[in-house]
Structures are given as structure tokens and as C-alpha cells.
Amino acid sequence: MNKIIALAMSALCSSAYVSAQSTPVESPVLVDGKKAHLTGFGSALLEGSQINNQFTLLKSFSGALLINRTVFVGGYFTESFQHDYNWRTDNDNNVFRHAGIQLGYIVLPKCVVSPVVSLQGGYGWYKGRMDSTTTGTFHQAAVLMPRVEIQVNILRWLRLSIGTSYRYTTGDNFFKKYNFSNPTGFVALHFGKF
């Protein structure tokens, strides 16, 4: 009787071992290639902020790769509209620009209204003059902008968002003296496959 039980247990264990060996074991991965949903979108943004304690409008354009409808990574370019800052410009540009990378996360991608958090970081520069006593100059800075926005799905290929951010600029004393680091508010249109 003991031999029969031992033989049955041995057959059961060997069949379990054989079935375990025939099933491949996959390593866990961050993004499964079979299930990853990769799309892209482009954005046009209008931003209001202060530079040199005066209201300034900036325009921004960006493009990003959207992974699994939640995480996006891409690039951006932002430029202020030419501004005279209440003095004669003598053909100086008086424009602030910055460009770099953006990373973000859409919190509830399948909802009509969803919060979005993102971070833009890059290189910025200003060409022009800030008061009537200086000549046109060129200044460079690093720019970091954490952003929070509410995004509304209007169509399958169109989203509207309203948000706020903080523009932190660091460079030479010029950017601190003329107060480039400020909160911003923006409205954006996003076009693409979501």
C-alpha cells in the first residue's frame, strides 16, 4: 500500500514538474510591449505671466509621445511676444525664449475631465534691453516649470486644458533683477491621438 501511495505521489510531482518546465517564465517589465499603447500629440499654448513686473503674454508649442494614455514625454518651445516695456526699443528684440524637454502624467485618462501634472525644463535666453539706460544684451538661463492643469476631452483628437505653473529661472543676476521667476496661467489646445 505504501508503495502505491509513493508511486502515485511520485507521478503527481513529476507531472507538475514537467508542466512547470513547459510554461515559460517572463520577467516583469515596466511597459509590456504587447500591451503598450503608443500615440502622440501636439499642443499650442497661450500663457500669461509677469516679466519685469509687467504683464507679458507668451506662446508655446510642444509635441509628445503618449505611453499607455497616461505618461507623456516630449519637447517644447516657448517665446514671449515682443514687448516694449514702455520705452523705445531701437530695434532690439526684447523677447524671452526657452526650450527643452517635458515629462507629464494624465491622472484619469479615460474620464472627460482629468487632472494633469507635468514638468518642463530647459535652456532659456533673453535678447534685448530692460530699461532706457541699457543697450541690447543677450542673457542665458536654465528654466524649470512645474505645471498643474485640468484637461477636458472635447473630441477624440482634441483636448482643451487650463492650468497654472511656476517659471523658475536661474542664470546671471539679470534674471533675478528683472523678476523672470513668476507664477503663470495658461490655456492650451492639444491635437493628436489620445
In words, what does this structure look like?
13% of the residues lie in helices and 57% in strands. The protein is elongated, with a radius of gyration of 27 Å. An eight-stranded antiparallel β-barrel has the order 1-2-3-4-5-6-7-8. It has one domain: Porin. With 194 residues, it is mostly beta strands. The chain starts with a helix and ends with a strand. β2 and β3 form a beta hairpin. The longest helix has 21 residues. About 3% of the residues have low confidence.
Give a nutshell description of this structure:
This protein is mainly β.
CATH topology: Porin
CATH C-level category = Mainly Beta
Sum up the overall morphology in one term: elongated
Mean pLDDT: 82
Number of spatially distinct domains: 1
Going across the major beta sheet, what is the strand order? Answer: 1-2-3-4-5-6-7-8
Label the CATH architecture.
Beta Barrel
Strand content: over 45%
| Helical segment count | 2
Topology, number of strands: 8
User: How far apart lie the N and C ends?
Assistant: 66 Å
**Largest sheet: number of strands, sense, barrel closure:** 8 strands, antiparallel, barrel
Give the SSE string.
HEEEEEEEHE
The assigned structural class equals: mainly beta
Give the helix level as a range of percent. Answer: 10-25%
Whole-number radius of gyration? 27 Å
Poorly predicted runs: 86-91
Which tags fit this structure?
194 residues, mainly beta, eight-stranded antiparallel barrel, 2 helices, elongated
